[in-house]
Amino acid sequence: MADAAGYDAVFITDHGKVWSPRELAGLHELSERLRVFPGIEITFPEGRDILVLGADNPVYESLSTPSEVFAQACADGYLTVIAHPYRWHDDMPDFFTLADAIELLSCNHADQRMAARAREYAEQHNMAGVYASDAHGLNFMNKFWIETAEDFDTPQEFRRIIVSRRYENHTRELAEPMPPRNKAACFAELSEADMMALYVQPTQEPMSF
Questions:
Q1: What is the domain-level CATH number for residue 174?
Q2: I need a labelling partner for 196 at 20 to 30 A (CA). Which of 16, 103, 127, 203 fits?
Q3: How buried is 147 (Cβ within 10 angstroms: 0-12 exposed, 13-18 middle, 19+ buried)?
Q4: Domain tally for the chain?
């Protein structure tokens, strides 16, 4: 789906698991053009989630405290992103101020009121605000994404682009409320609107995570 939609790269962030080099190699074989970068979504107490984009070391699977996670991500040069802020909580823990970025909108976090609060938090703490697909199904993609001002080859380069604000958030007109009612597992399950959107390529090179 990412390849068909014209994406140049994606970050895959499973809960509590990093992708092995063998798994990533297998994913790269599915497309000659699309680059697949690893990552992880780590859940802290009370359901607070943080994304570490680029995480490929199994050590991330055993990190349990914010200080451990942010220290490791800083040492590795990986971007840390607050996932779906205000979705389940009205407050933000103090340790979230250590993050590089915060999600503004995604298919699983598309409430404009929450997005406004997230933008306010980002401005208050000098934090980048990003769109993301949060793709739990094929129909979650090609709705929210970012386009970088320049190409990149490593997660570290991607982090530098984001923290220096050399990117733009993008979305397309949505034909249904978010999140989607179902999780499409194959192209045959995509709506007509989603299939038609595959033929409307962005003017720049998109990157989604």
A1: 3.20.20.140
A2: 103
A3: middle
A4: 1
Domain that holds residue 32: 9-208
The residue-averaged pLDDT of 119-132 equals 97
- Tell me whether residue 3 is in a domain: no
Query: Please, which contacts does 13-17 make with residues 24 or more away whose CB atoms are closer than 8 Å?
Result: 13/39, 13/40, 13/41, 13/51, 13/52, 13/53, 13/209, 14/40, 14/41, 15/40, 15/41, 15/43, 16/40, 16/41, 16/42, 16/43, 16/61, 17/61
Looking at the domain assignment, is residue 203 inside a domain?
yes
Question: What pLDDT does 82 receive?
Answer: 97
Residue 151 lies in a domain: yes
pLDDT digits (tens, 9 = 90+) for 75-97: 999 999 999 999 888 899 999 99
Query: Which tens digit of pLDDT belongs to each residue from 12-68?
Result: 999 999 999 999 999 999 888 899 999 999 999 888 999 999 999 999 999 989 999
